[in-house]
Amino acid sequence: MANSAPMNAPERDIKPTVASPNDISSKQSTSTIDSEHHQQNAGSDITDVQEETQKPVRPADCKFGWIPTLAVMVNYMFIFGASNSYGVFSTYYLNVKFPGTPATTLAWIGTLITALMLGFNIITGALSDKLGYRLVAYTGTILCTAAYILASFSEKVWQLILTQGVLFGIGASFLFAPSISIPAQWFQKHRGLATGVAVSGSSLGGLWCTAATQAIIDSLGYKWALRILGILTFAVTGIMNLLYFRRVPARPRKTLFEFTAAKRLVFWLMSLETFAMYTGYWALTFYIGTTARHLGGSIQDGSNLLLVLNAGSAVGRVLAGVIADRFGNINTLFISLILTVVIEMPLWMTAHSMAPLYALCALYGLISPTFISINPVIVANQFDPEVLASVMGMANLFSGIGVLAGNLSQGAIFDKYDKREQFTNTIIFSGVFILFAGLVTLAMRIHVIRHHDRGNGHTTIFNLKQHLLQKV
Known about the structure:
Protein name: Major facilitator superfamily (MFS) profile domain-containing protein
Family: Belongs to the major facilitator superfamily. Monocarboxylate porter (TC 2.A.1.13) family.
Distance between the termini: 35 Å
Order of helices and strands: HHHHHHHHHHHHHHHHHHHH
Shape: globular
CATH class: Mainly Alpha
Pfam families: MFS_1
Transmembrane segments: 64-83, 103-123, 135-151, 157-180, 192-217, 224-244, 265-284, 304-323, 330-351, 357-380, 387-406, 426-444
Structural class: mainly alpha
Oligomer: single chain
Number of helices: 20
Membrane topology: Multi-pass membrane protein
CATH topology: Growth Hormone, Chain: A
């Protein structure tokens, strides 16, 4: 519609007048030339727009947006379900299958799942914007399925590292890249809620995947658990990928990466926050089952604790989105990170029975994963929607590095300093990095507010009371 004005403009400018035949002929000739000129320009404009948009763009916050959002939620069950339920495999590998293998070595499997899923996102995110969501997602489906099947035939730790760790992590990154930007792209007013609903699928996946994996291991063994998960991943994500629609077409570009994002301080602050958070976040997931065993519990007790953790997380991620829409996404993120430290360290350190562990898992699951829901919203609010997958991919590179550094460090600390008999040093390591993530988030909050005030001509003098009351 925007291009109709240039085509119609000459018609509105022509007014009927009484003139000689020569004048009429001259005016008709001039009008024809002008009309053709405008039509050519308009046609060129239309062609440019069509090449730029490629397909119609639906309005934000329309009901249709819930279709791809719910498809993302289902896919998240399988993308993050593997990492959120890995505690079941970790407990089995550590205590049954490979009891003499150092925890640091076994930690490579679960670590690489998440580290490569996030770190490799710098490539898969750019490919999603350049090649299309569905092609990238289907590549992930095939790789994840192959990883599960190959892992089921593995007998050595290094084989599981390459299959269940490396191959699945890369495959999950291909699924994750288009998924992470879809909800924020389709919604504006309820962006936090939509993103929270979508990422709640990761907790729901951890919930049923944990229970199903434990049940299959108990009845059929860990190999069949891997094979059944592979079959389910192939069938379900293969269907959900069909519903991956973009609202805003990708911006044509010559380079693969969105380097302009790296020029902004908010990008680096968010990247540092995610690095620090992922460095400390997975300690509880990986070691809560072993903690239960040390307190006299069974492998099933460890599985039950993971169920509680994931159930709390499913509620918390949706709730975080609702709260963020009401009170500001960065505000909500900062408060949740601080509360995570307040809950994790005392409850885990002082636990002498199963009851505190269940309370810890419920509260940690409810509060800690807020950053997973809110970081995509921050990117959507701070950057253009056409490049969401690319910018999130670049930021997630630091998340993957955090997972790699954090999980391997935790395994070394548990082996060397906690002597596999306690968890004090592991807990301190986790808590310190989560606290640091909270402080970085506070710095990001101050930067965003001051940048906004400066852009609107407001004073740049920092006023603590004014800034604390602002919603961001």
